[in-house]
Structures are given as C-alpha cells and as structure tokens.
Amino acid sequence: MLLCLKVHVCLCVSPSLPSMADADAELGAQLEKLALKATAGDTSDDNNSTNNNSNSNSNNTIDGANFEAGPRHCKICQLSWTGSLESVAMHESGKTHHKRLLAPRGATPHAGDSAFGVTSSSSVAAEVADCKGQLPPPTWALLPATSAVGTRDPPAGTAAAMKLWPWPGDTPNAFDEVAKRFLHVLMQQGMSEEMQSRVQKAIHDQEPQSGSDDPSPTVPGTQASPADRMESCAQKAFTMQSQMRRCTQQPEDFADIEALWGYAEAKFSLRAGMAFNALAQRATPGLSAVLARPKLRVAALGGGPAAELLAAVVARDVAGGGFGKLAIYEWVDSWRPIVQQVGRLLGEHIEYHHCDVSKPLASEENAALRDADANFDVLIFSHVLLECGKGEAAPLELLRDLWVSKRESGLSHILVLDAGQARGRGKRTRPLAGSLRDVELLAAELGAEVHRVEGRCRTDGVLLARSSESERLAI
C-alpha cells in the first residue's frame, strides 16, 4: 500500500558556520515567509517538487528542495531524530514504521497533513485561521521544535509538535517549550557568532610569518568540537557563578564570553520561566491590564542575558499588548552580544545601558536611568539584589528612588525575583527571607501593594504595585 506523505523542512540552523548577518537574514526571511503563507493560506508550494526514491515505496512531496539535515518526527511512530531527507525514506522502509502503520502510537495524520517534520506551512495557516482578526504568529512561536536522535518527543499519544499560537493557555508547560526552542536556536546561532568573531579577531591581530607555507593564523579554540566547547563554557560559568554566590564578583569575572554563554545555557530557561510565571500565570489584574497596553515598556536591571525580556514579550503578546520599549541595564558591557542576539531572535530592538544596582539613582553610574527617555511601565530586578548585598542587607536605594521618581512617567509595577526563600510544603505561609523580606518592608514604607510570586518549589519573588490609596493621594 502506498503512503503519500508531504514533508516540509522547517526552520533549522545550518550545521555550517555562516556569518551572523547571513544567518539573521535567512532566519528573518524564513519566519516572514511562514507568517505570510499562514496569513494568506498559501499552499501553492505543496506541489512544487517531488522526489522518487527507489529504496522506498512512498512518494514524498517536498516543500522546497532542501536536503540538509534537520529535525524529523514521525507522527505514526512518535519517533524524533535529526537527519537528511534520505533518513525519511529509510525510516519508512523499516520494520518499526510498518508495524506502527497497523497500530499507530500517536494520532493518525489527517488527509493532507505531514507525517514527518516539526511544522508545516499548512499547520501554521491552520493556527492563524483559528484566530481570525489577530496578527500573524510572533517569531518566538515559529521557532523549530528541538528533538534528540532516537527519542520519543513528545510522548506517545500527544500531538507531534506543540502549537504555540494561538497561545495554548490550558497547557501548563507551554512556556517551557517556548524557552526550550528559543534557547536552542540562541545557543546555536550565538556560538556560531562567537566563533566567527574569534576568527576575524585572529585574522586582524595576527600577521602571517615570513616564509610560512600557511598564511592563516592559528585561532585558539576553533578546532574544538561543539561538545568540548560547551563543556568549556559550562566550566567557566561554574567558576563565575561561584563568585556570584559569594557576592564577591568583579567586572573582570564577566570578561570571558564563553563563561557568559555557559551561564545562558544553564540559567536562561529557568529565569525566563520564573519571570513568565510572575508576569502571566500569577499576574494581578492590574499587571495584566498593563501588559495589554498598545505600547508596553519593560526594562530588566541586572538582566543579562535577557531571559526576563523573552518572558515579558511572550506575556505581552498573549495579553494582546504591543511593542513599546525593551531595555537591559547592566553592570558590565560584556552581556551586550548575547542580549543583541536575543533581540534579533525576537525581532525587536533591545536597548543596552549601564547601571549599578548597589548605588542610588543620583550616582554617576546610573546616569542612563535618569535620562529623559528612561521611562517604563514595568521594571524587573532579576536575581541581582541578593548578589549585590555582599552578605548584608539588600541595596534598595535605587529601587526606592525609581519607585518615587518614576511615578509621573508611568512606572506602575516592579518585579523582584531572587533566591534564598523557603522551599516545600507550607512555603506560602512562611515569612519571606533575605532580599525579598527587605523589599516587603520597603513596600510598606512606600505604601505600595506587595504580591508574593509563588513558584513551583518556593516563593520566587515579590511584585510591587501602585496601590489605589497611593494613587489617590498622588492625584
């Protein structure tokens, strides 16, 4: 029996190392193409190309002749792997596939659907058709799903790939999937950019030796395998984090870009998830109304590598809000390349400014925050107050100054995320500790509302909001 399958090769990062300009242009073009196809319901590419393989009994229709390695998923067998188009034919001819044709693990594909691939243009079109009157899917919802060779992802009996737009609000781990996909592409493109920067710097700095047969400079670290490089990044990140845990970090501790990429690999998804939990899943009605504004302005202080801004963008898009301003205020400039890469993946500009959370607003270090354009609706202090406390009380001068001075410019909420809180059963009834306790006491002094942000295992943070009483007095 012939099985007609349509294969769509979705967005994937090339295994080669192109320049970041080319990679960004290619990613943007593909995302735009998917969104345009989805909006127009264009399926004209479905019959553009066919491939007849003598080793297979099937006739695969391909959306574009792309034979590069990419993520594959068989809905019938519920198996995922990474491979070229030839691997599809090999899988079809195998015993597992033929067995699952008789007893499928997952739902049998509908007529016209793709049995392989992560996302197809028709599925994106269907998603947009389900939300008529809304804008096309945001870029974070179109990033490819990740899958490891030989793993069942997702589990048997579920859809082949989670649809992220329209937002599946009843799916508890939907944002976890967003963060997973985003980090996967961020790391692949970011490490490629870092490699290109090394090569270009070496070419610029080193002159070929006279009489040498090989004029190319030797670039340290460029011969290592991706696994070795990631291990090196992880080790450097661990050393950097040990300084941060002891509150003894210095600017030079953040000078190694590999350490920063290792930190992003370890912490990005976790920090983004905590922020999304506070901004969306446990948001107060007032905060939800702010996120739905047509021009939302959000800044993260101590926010490298911008994980909280990914959460803010997704929460804003889910709430129906629009782009106003995104900004990172950091103690060191070395996070800038990673923050810029996050902005490119989001398709939105992220401003990058200097600040020192441990000093008051009047300090020269915080001149950027006194700027006339430094106005925001929501500020996020992400795991920075405890680190800057140096084992003593959390430095709250800057938070106090911003809350008081930015009232007229529209600042309505400050989210503080930090560690050091009680875990386990009864955590909601236990008093706050460390920096969050200090923020709670300050909020009472300022007349601000305080809302605890409960996470999966502990209290993740507190949200300061302008109380109705304080607003009435201000007016």
TrEMBL record:
<keyword id="KW-0732">Signal</keyword>
<feature type="compositionally biased region" description="Polar residues">
    <location>
        <begin position="208"/>
        <end position="225"/>
    </location>
</feature>
<feature type="compositionally biased region" description="Low complexity">
    <location>
        <begin position="46"/>
        <end position="61"/>
    </location>
</feature>
<protein>
    <submittedName>
        <fullName>Uncharacterized protein</fullName>
    </submittedName>
</protein>
<feature type="region of interest" description="Disordered">
    <location>
        <begin position="193"/>
        <end position="230"/>
    </location>
</feature>
<feature type="region of interest" description="Disordered">
    <location>
        <begin position="39"/>
        <end position="64"/>
    </location>
</feature>
<feature type="signal peptide">
    <location>
        <begin position="1"/>
        <end position="23"/>
    </location>
</feature>
